Amino acid sequence: MRTIPTLLPVLVFLLVAAASAADDGGDNSTFVPRDYILLDCGSSGQNNDSDGRQWNGDTGSKYAPSLNSAGVYASNQDSSVPQYPYLTARVFTTPFTYSFPLGTGRKYLRLYFYPSNYSGRAASDAFFDVNAGPITLLRNFSAYQTAQAINFAYLIQEFSINVASSGLSLTFTPSVNHSNSFAFINGIEIVSMPDIFSDIPTLVSGGTPTQYPIDENWAMQSMYRLNVGGQAISPKEDSGMYRSWADDSLYIYGAAFGVTYPADTNVTIEYSFPSLSPLGCLLLG
Ligand SMILES: *[C@@H]1O[C@H](CO)[C@@H](O)[C@H](O)[C@H]1NC(C)=O
Ligand SMILES: *[C@@H]1O[C@H](CO)[C@@H](O)[C@H](O)[C@H]1NC(C)=O
Ligand SMILES: *[C@@H]1O[C@H](CO)[C@@H](O)[C@H](O)[C@H]1NC(C)=O
Ligand SMILES: *[C@@H]1O[C@H](CO)[C@@H](O)[C@H](O)[C@H]1NC(C)=O
Ligand SMILES: *[C@@H]1O[C@H](CO)[C@@H](O)[C@H](O)[C@H]1NC(C)=O
Ligand SMILES: *[C@@H]1O[C@H](CO)[C@@H](O)[C@H](O)[C@H]1NC(C)=O
């Protein structure tokens, strides 16, 4: 007999905090981030990824001056895995901190992981914590198990964090009590995001929509980002924050897929902040 796993109570926040591109006459303005860092861990020099975005190697980088020699290559250089930033890594057997001087305000922090074997270390042995200053973003994280669970060869963990004053310290710490444990990272992306939470967002969770204030010290992790009624959008096609948007049809349960309507051109939606993103919504959990 097949047992149906108990569904854990999951609180899903649907924060309708992303604006539509619809504005008076169609405003296509693109957000220009103050901070925009693409750090290709374990490599040196500048390399463009398949999306045309330019990554800088962390060898000799001002964010990690002690990393003055090359990192390690993934042992399986799978052609289906994008070379930048995934095929090189930094491996840490003791805690290591990158220090990013940044402007204040919220940032997207994207951590890129390709759980391969690295210089004789097995991918399945990597268990580690990632801390942004005092906040633990990932605890006893296994990129290997996570990638297996979602059936992907590589993955990105995206966070929204507030940088108060002195920039961002990002620390990788191998878990204790697991023999041969190590930490690794393939790529780090930091992009300023606009101040979308100072106007209190609306929480939609099945009941009556309520206001849901976001404390500026909270860090949040993105779970899904769907372009509702539209297609997938690559980071390069986003409106300046390099977000990845997924097609929502994969996430609709049941037989009825609904009908997709384009925006009504007779209706003007006015937002109190500049228009930023395609039609859609941001799911944070
Ligand atoms: C905005 O972009 C769309 C699609 O690229 C285009 O059709 C429209 O003319 C643009 N609007 C403005 C005001 O530039
Ligand atoms: C890499 O990207 C940068 C910035 O987008 C661009 O200026 C440069 O020409 C690109 N280099 C190559 C080799 O495509
Ligand atoms: C990774 O290392 C483990 C342990 O040494 C080994 O069993 C496994 O076959 C290796 N995987 C690859 C893809 O090289
Ligand atoms: C980390 O996770 C592994 C596998 O899930 C587990 O065996 C181990 O006890 C955990 N370690 C800590 C310190 O939580
Ligand atoms: C690791 O093991 C030591 C000794 O067995 C124990 O005191 C400690 O609490 C363990 N730490 C974690 C995070 O499990
Ligand atoms: C917009 O308004 C015009 C004139 O009232 C009308 O003919 C048209 O059907 C409207 N468009 C939509 C999408 O409702």
From TrEMBL:
Pfam families: Malectin_like. Keywords: ATP-binding, Glycoprotein, Nucleotide-binding, Signal, Transferase. Residues 1-21 form the signal peptide. GO terms for cellular component: membrane. Its main location: membrane. Residues 39-251 form the Malectin-like domain. InterPro entries: ANXUR1/2-like, Malectin-like_Carb-bd_dom. One of its GO terms (molecular function) is ATP binding. It comes from the Eukaryota. It is a single-pass type I membrane protein. It is found in: Membrane. This is Malectin-like domain-containing protein. It comes from Vanilla planifolia (Vanilla).
